[in-house]
Design a protein that fits this description.
Elements (H helix, E strand, L loop, with lengths): L2 H11 L9 H9 L1 H17 L12 H10 L15 H24 L3 H25 L1 H8 L3
Helix pairs in contact: 2-3, 5-6
Length: about 150
Amino acid sequence: MKKNCDFYMDEFFALDKNERLPASLTVHLLFCKKCRNFVRKFSLLEKKCSKENMKKISCDSKNVVEIMRRLDSAYEMYNLQKERVSMRQWLVAGAALILCVVLFEMLAFFASAEFFIFPLSLFFAFSIIMYCAAFVGTNMDFFIKKWKIQ
């Protein structure tokens, strides 16, 4: 391929999947048989590789672990196995957090410690925000499947 063809192939590879070809690239492909054949073969190969019936390998597979160990000597199996926190534990922790908010607010109010209410409220507000962020962040798969977000 000529230097001109390299420019057009770089332009082709810079495109996203199923993105419309620019007019200049289309004109070049009409007149350059080598580039046209290359793009056609590459597109066929991409279609074959992206089929849904491709064999899927689990992350626990010995082959995957061995490949990762060769790439990164510090890689260990425990990186693949994340401990999941059950929904019951999340709910118990959230209920305990809300109960603590109510109890400490009542305690500060009845103890006439009005100077203590504002910092305590800020602390609990920050705690609830961090709890919600951790809950959503660790259960992202659940929310995506529940609302069918793609």
